[in-house]
Amino acid sequence: MNSVKGTLxxxxxxxxxxxxxxxxxxxxxxxxxxxxLAAAWPDWRYRSKVLSPALGGNYTVTDSASVFILGQDEGxxxxxETKSQIHGCWRGKIVVDYLKLERGDRILSFLTGGTGFxxxxxxxxxxxxELPDGSNYSVRVGTLGLGVSTGExxxxxxxxxxxxxxxSTSFGLHMGSAALGQPASLVFGGYEKNRAxxxxxxxxxxxFRSGSSILFLVxxxxxxxxxxxxxxxxxxxxxxxxxxTEGDSAEKTAQAEGAKSGTALxxxxxxxxxxxxxxxTCEAAARRLPVRWNxxxxxxxxxxxxxTYQRIVRSPAYLxxxxxxxxxxxxxxxxxxxxxxxxxxPPLMPTPTPYFPCKPWNTEDGIWALGRAFLQAAFVxxxxxxxxxxxxxxxxxxxxxxxxxxxxxxxxxxxxxxxEEFERSWxxxxxxxxxxxxxxxxxxxxxxxxxxxxxxxxxxxxxxxFFWRRKVKQPEALRSEVAPKEQPEMDGQGRAxxxxxxxxxxxxxxxxxxxxxxxxxxxR
Length: 524
What we know:
Distance between the termini: 131 Å
Shape: globular
Oligomer: single chain
Low-confidence stretches: 79-84, 112-116, 437-451, 472-489, 491-524
Strand content: 25-35%
Number of domains: 2
């Protein structure tokens, strides 16, 4: 994998669940004879989470010859309910150790000691998510910390930058779609220009509280990029604001950040799978989709037996998210429904089950998260030297040439590819529906319009038929107005002769005389 000088690109391998599939970065930690690569998702926090073999990882503190333990029994689940936490709960130790990332042509190592390649890790021995029904399951993928430390121990980016390996403390990330075969992208010290389309949203980075930027989400809409709409219930906004959130923490937090009423504060979080939104919005979208609610999981499952299921998930339809940047300028990210047809696998479901990853969520701190389902369609980057986050539309799965751009310490915006690339990069993966003039109309409205058109056409046909009949009869009517009406012809016995029958010859003689009754003779 080639790199531009001052940047490093990380290798992604494999597909992971149980709610994806998802791409993951490959990494290894520690020095031991059983050292192997393990999976990790990017994280805004500066500490990486490496998992024990009991969780499917490869790291054991006691087996590493290079470990330095900083903390004992960090985290912990205890009696705290984990179902209210997006990140579940974990237990382990904070350590400093080697961390290796695969980069195609060589392994990049972070070495503890005075060289500046320190890696601060959470050695995780337990990590569980609790489901709404009280059951739980273990996390099987670790995290790769991309954030910047505010303490003495530097993060990965700080170590690489201070050693001159990368040009700035920055990165560019696009998760891509494992299901559609679109590779992911993670570049340290730069980004892939072809992964960022059109206008770029620039947001202040809050490294002290969330580790990332807090964005203002102001609208969520259903739409169709090209062709006819697959939505019988209509398109447009499904945004319900934060009105159904328990308590008023969301409103207070939003107001403290300077947002208008009804705005949801969100973070971009690759370590979680779903699109977590205030109660009401996912529900409003679901009413226009063939989905059913699953209480045990707290998720919507696609009704694959509904004929509109394939019509929607294969069409150019999307769920779009509108953000307001610090200058009150809107930036829109479209997430096609091709990316919202994900799969639940064991232990979440006994057999692979398609689901819609929009999850209603009552937040405790007034901040929601847009996870990997959203980041399939969004480019996100950060320049920690300017304390800013970048957000732009990402392209579809159609392959393009990779173009890596370096991010300098003073850069406050990005060079992007044209927004027209969005539609072009998706068209081979879409089934475009015919335009029928009924986009956005409900089924009842469509039926009513069709019946009205049929009635109008029938009335027009009847009118044409009567007009034609009148034209055919018009000459006879004109003759009857000009000539005096003839009396029916009579036979010799005073009986009228039926039309169409021959008249006796003697009655046609010009000498024939018809006598009038005496009573009708005028007096002289």
